[in-house]
Amino acid sequence: MAVDTLANGIPGSQSQSATPIVVDSAEADSAEIMALAREAQRIWGAMSLPTRARRLSRLAANIAASIDPIADTIHEENGKPRAEAVAHEAVTAIQFARHTCHVASAVLSAQAVPLESHPSRSAELVRQPFGVVLAISPWNLPFFIPLSQVLPALLAGNAVVLKPSELTPDSARLIEKLLGECGLPEGLFQVAYGDGSLGQRLIEAQPDKVLFTGSVATGRKVMAACARLPIPVSLELGGVDAMIVRADADLEFTASAAAWGATFNAGQACASVERLLVHRSIHDALVVRIADKMNRIDRSRELGPAVDDKQLHVWQEHMLNARNAGATQAAGGTFLPGRKLEPTLLTGSQVAETEAWRSETFGPVLAVLPFDDDDEAISMHNATEYGLTASIFTADLDAAKAMAAKLRAGVVCVNDVAATCYGSPEIPWGGVGLSGFGRSHGDEGLLDATWTKVIEVPKFAGPNAKRPWWYPYGPDLEATMSKLGRALAVENPVRRAVKVAKAGVSIVPLLTRNPRL
Ligand code: NDP
Fold first, then answer.
1. 29: buried, middle or exposed (CB in 10 Å: 19+, 13-18, 0-12)?
2. Does pTM top 0.85 for this prediction?
3. In this predicted structure, what is the pLDDT of residue 475?
4. How far apart are the CA of 238 and the centre of ligand 1, in A?
């Protein structure tokens, strides 16, 4: 195994200065933004679901016609390779837009609920838009993440105010332009450009729901601000996502998946693979292959930079910490000009003591530890407060499914990097624990942009009968209801029906009594 030590030191920032902050509505009056959004939502919310879906269905084609400018903008703005901008953002957005517009009417239309408890009545669940949704988004997928927050909320009948990261305003401008071409009422979708303090002011201006994607630290602040009002909030936070490799895995395939999964977007993805748990019997062979593949990643064309000096500093701290802990560097470890870090593989038992293992590096660093059996892999995986995604590599799909059932993660993917699921618009996305709650994408993403109203009505108009549990109260009511309660607890449906019918006989006198009230 070609193993270097972490001896090459951690240089200071060799970067240019951080991407300049472009703030053109930091002074914007957040109350005015909300008022405009509310007015537009009244028009939009009154339109039928198919009408809204038809307007927004132009979005997929609009994005397809703009793949080049989208790729240029993302590449310029956060430095990721153009190929990633096209594959992970533009193409994913097209598929997401087309699918979500297509299913919105079915997912969001009213649903009948059969009422075994009150057979003479019927109920309907109606999905209502919140009103104004505030979406706060990060810089790492500056086009697709905000778009995947905004589109379901609009389809559901909300107005949306987007607060993109101050580091990536131009990607948000593209979304503004592309949605503008769908013919939405003025003010229905607004982008508020500015920094975190603008995000706080927008929350204080009382939107009706907040969708936040970003760090745990900011997520806590956002939730605290929402709690004061209170406003419902969905949080999509980070993760220390693990790839679990069983002894029977295809080594070549798994090594490619690990090298890519840990380093695409320079590791700056919530679902990038940060921890590799590998069966001890194949540990050394797999490490050699991954190291080899990491060494062959093209540093200029295939490896992006840290988005800014703040992110670079986290990478530096984690590398220094790994060196001090005595971890072995099986690949990479060198900082390159332009805020880049070589794809880095950390091995050895000391890895368990490193920040790279315990907390999110959000960089091109993969920390590896061996396990001896499935149970140990599961408990190693679950020994973190995060729970966004996990992946399992194995030839035994039944064993993988059994393992998946025990992993604490919002998305578990077998024989693929879990980030791939982010590109499947049918799959709800989100985590547990420190990784947040609420779901974006899929049917659940659409439902997350709504609240549920119940409409319960009699199946026929009249004659009306007063309810037996209304006034007057007396011992006959208590005795009858207790009898009914015991009948309802019977498991067997036939015996239950007989007992309920018998209890029903004693209800008749209650219905025909001469009520005082
Ligand atoms: P932040 O959480 O700082 O930023 C996310 C968004 O929140 C940005 O738009 C930011 O604005 C805004 N914001 C910052 N402070 C506040 C506030 N007090 N109130 C309201 N909004 C605020 O994430 P970072 O940009 O620092 O990303 C770093 C970390 O975030 C990563 O290391 C990773 O852990 C996590 N992350 C997770 C992602 C996921 O998909 N789950 C995606 C991206 C990041 P501004 O940028 O203008 O300051």
1. exposed
2. yes
3. 83
4. 10
